[in-house]
Every structure is written in C-alpha cells, then in structure tokens.
Amino acid sequence: MKSELAALIHAALEQLVAKGTLAELPDTPPQIDRPREASHGDLSCNIAMVLAKRAGVAPRALAQQVIDALPTNTVIRQSDIAGPGFINFFIEQHHHTEVVRTILETGRLFGHSDSGGGRRVQVEFVSANPTGPLHVGHGRGAAIGDCLGRLLEATGWSVQREFYYNDAGQQINNLALSVQARAQGKGPDHSDWPADGYQGHYIEDVAKAYLSSETVQAADREITAAGDPADLEAIRDFAVASLRREQDQDLRAFQVVFDKYFLESSLYDDGAVKDTVTALQAAGHTYEDQDALWLRTTEFGDDKDRVMRKSDGGYTYFVPDVAYHHNKWQRGFERVINEQGADHHSTITRVRAGLQGLDVGIPEGWPEYVLHQMVTVMRDGAEVKLSKRAGSYVTLRDLIDWVGCDATRYFLVARAPSSQLTFDVDLALAKSNENPVYYIQYAHARCASVLRKANESLGEDSAQEGLSHLSCLSESETLALAISLGRFPEVVATAAERLEPHDLANYLRELAADFHSFYNAHKVLEVEPGTAKARLALVAATQQVIANGLALLGVSAPEAM
RNA sequence: GCGGAAUUAGCUCAGCUGGAUAGAGCGUCGGUCUACGAAACCGAAGGUCGCAGGUUCGACUCCUGCAUUCCGCGCCA
Question: Which positions on chain B have an atom < 7 Å from some protein CB?
C-alpha cells in the first residue's frame, strides 16, 4: 500500500518537474508515514514541506499542486492538506482488505521478499569458548543472531550461521587443569588447585565422566575418554568435547542450529595466522619495538597501535581474529554480521584495521557488528546471580528450565540489542495477559479455534469463500486489523535492514491486540453467511501472519493452549 | 582520564532517514461472560522525554557542554 502511494507521488512530482514548478526530483524518495491520529488519514507525506523552500512556493500551496498532479487511481479515496503542509491520504477500503486475499494466496511466504537476491551473508553468533555452560548473555546472542538469520533468509539472502571458538588457548588449559584436579580428587581449597581454575559443578561432572571412560558426541566432534588422570592432553580433548556437547544440547533446546563450527586452532594449523602477519609486514603496516611486532592500527582509526607478536614469540588474540575474518572474506560472503556482547566492542576497530591493512579490497565497514548489552535476571523482585550448575552465573539452561524456550526467546529478542535488558522470570512465567508471549500465542490459538468451529458449521472452504465477500469487512476494528496485517511485509523488511529483531516482536504484540479487539467487538460465526465467511478469511489471514511472524522469532504457534 | 552504549509514565520498554496532541505492556482505579476460547475486551488516572544551550518551518530524534548508570581501555581471550 505504501509503495503504491509512493509510486503515485513520484509520478506527481515528475509532472511538476515537467511543468517547471520543480527544478528536479528530490534525491531521496518521498517520506510516507502512518499517522497515529485517525483524522490524519491512513498515510501522510511531508514532501511539500521538504521541497517548499527550493521550489519557492509556500508548503500548503505546493501540497495542493502535488495533489492536483496525482494520476487517476483506485487507491486514494481522499487527499487533505493539513497543518504546515502535510498531505494526508485516505485509502479506499477495498485496498485495506485486499491484503487478506494476498495472505491466503501466499501463505507461509507472506511477508517474505527478495531484496537479498540470493546474495551470501554470514551471521556469526554465540561463539562461546567451550569452558563452561552458556550463560544468559550467550542466550541473548543466540536469540538475536538466530532471529537475524531468519529475517535475512526471509528477505532473500542466502544465510550461513557460524559458531567460532577457541579450542586451544590458555582458557582451555585452565579447563583441562581444573578437570584434572577434580579427577585427582582435589577441590578449589586444595593447595594444588590451579590458579584461575574453573570451580563450577560441571567440572566435577566432566571429571567423573572422564574417569568412567564415557563417549561424548557434540555437533562437531566425538571422543571417548582415556580415563587416565595423568594424561592432560586426553583430559583436554575430552573436556572440550563434553562442554561442546553441553552447549549443543542447550542450543538445540533453544531451537538454534549452526551450519558451521570454526576452530581457532585451524588458523594456526593451516598457516593462516602466520600468513596474516607476513602480509601485514609486507604491506608496511608493522614495526618492531621492545622485542614485539606492532600493527599501526592508528592508521585506521584506532587510538593506539596494537601488539601482534609478543616478545615471547606468541601472537595476541586479535591476529587470529584478523586471519579468521580474512578467511570469511575469501569464502565469498558479501556481508558478514558478527553478533557479540558489547564487552567485545574494542575488537571492532582492530579487526577492521587488520583487514584494511591486508589491502585485499575489503570494504571499510566490513564486517558489520550487532552488539548486545548485558542481561540481568530478576526473580521474586531480586536479581538472580548464581546458577546451580555453573556457580558464578545464570545459564541459558536455567532460563529455559524456568520459563521454556518460547518465552526465553521472545523476551531476549524483544528489546533493542543496544538496551540493557532486565529479564523478569515471574513475568515470563505468567500464563496470563501479563505475558506478551502467551498473549500472542493465545491470539493464534483463538484463530485456530474459530476456524475449527467454522469447518463444522460452514464447511471447509468457508474462509476461502470469504474472499468474494471482502467488502463486508467495514467496521473500524475490522479495518484496523486488516491494516495491521498489511504492515507485516514492511515490518519484516525494516527489521532485517536495520538488524533489529525487536521491531518484529513488538509488531506481533500489536497485531495480537488488534485481533483481540476485533474478536471482542464482532461475532465471526453467528452472523449473516457472507459476513461470517469474510470475517473467517480475516481470521485465517491473521492466524497466518502471526504464525509467520512467530516463525521468524523461532517461537512456536500453538493451535490450542 | 579516553572510547562505546544508555537516560522517555510507579516498573519494564517502544518511538521508523527530524514531523502533527510523545506510545505500549505491567501495576493502580472503574466497567464487560446463560455469548465462536475472559489466557480476552472497554474506559480512566499517570510524563518538564536526565540538565543547559544551539541548528530550523518543526527536535524525544541532529550538534555542543554537563550529570548519572553500564561496558571496555593488557605484549589476556
């Protein structure tokens, strides 16, 4: 509807240019808004105010000229000039309700588009090191990253989901030493307990499983424990596999699936790290100082240069990071989106600087980043900080156990990533109107229930037959619902463009509210058959859009609750 | 100290590239089921958009300064 109006306005502007009223077309397309005030029409445009000064015409006068230049059409019922020069458009009723037909015809694909044109994008998210269970921050990353993947797929991108982790660094050593200590019967109070050792209960579980020679299978590896407490190498391999498996189980319970797991160690094995250093040296972006090799990241906007190779010969972490992203570039991703916690903010400049230094044609803003802020968990009015299993932090598994996958996903994705998030366990648990997840799902189940009833009384095809009676959809609540349904494609497109899934979460709550209002105001079944069928079509369309929207959030759409 | 993010109703948060009288949910108060699912609906009260300047037809939105909170600031990852 918006795009149709945009085309009409564009045509009007072209005519004004031809007449000489305007010197040229504006460089940006006219802005079309949905006014919140009903008396301001269905859509409004501010183009007359934007162009008034350049055209040397008063805004309201220019607005009149735009209106007069609009081509004949069947979309606009009425055009008003209001306030300082807004043009308010009232849309023909049949244009509002026609979307019901489109929805029933396109079904699961309604809301999808092809702006991505099959181009390749990678979304990297979670990327937790296998040193412990996933915490709520990882959960937020998982919810946002996975939802971004779904939104990009829905807008025509070819998406790969990737999980990157360090399987060989100092943290993994600490993990192995911690498990070994537990396998030898030592606890954190023992004099030989490793410094920086991991103290969570899960370490004991891993040690126990290792001693009993269990076999574990994770998404990207499988290993059988050697059982020998002295074999640190074997313990490390087993511990990594064990924690990878635990993370996989949590992710599966969270309905998140990755296409690829990428190991940091592989970048050392295949020489990519070394090659990256050589390339940066050859490009002249490095220098030696105090026995270390430095990268002039200040050439690329950093506030100070960064060490690449330490005086002990080892590389700092950002070197493999650069090598990793170079590898992504070589794999041909037009876009790469990294979803991370905001505490990793400082790496952005460094990684991009390293990539620019390679001078292989990587665009300056590549890769893109979506950073999410911290999550705090509230329960019974107090902040929850501890988990039974991990000890020092609340895990994703805790949340799923407490409130279920659907509520966890919805709550973690319903706020702008840049906002700190307070997760209210009691609210997520409420099976009532307090809880937006149930509110939306309830609307879906209600639709399903009415349609089931209609199948018995009016026949299986009644909703379909309603398409010939769409003119019966005329009450304000009914039209408001239809208009909301029509917004869905642009909500999906905008959320995908701006990489902000919370737009979609909020839209679905509003849509559910519109449906509940409609449902309470008007009978669907026990009315004149034509009207009943038209309303059934509207109900079927609503069910479809809620289902499509929830699918993009990874939340289930129950037929009954 | 430097960099990033944030500051909007009692609470949790939206507010689209600057648009019309700043919105929603919860909470509070008052209504609505012998009626297709009341897990719902309708109505009311509630805000100096952190503070002070600036830019312009117009600022919650952009710019400057200040305050407060969070996160970073290592030859850790």
Answer: 2-7, 12-17, 19-27, 35-42, 57, 70-77
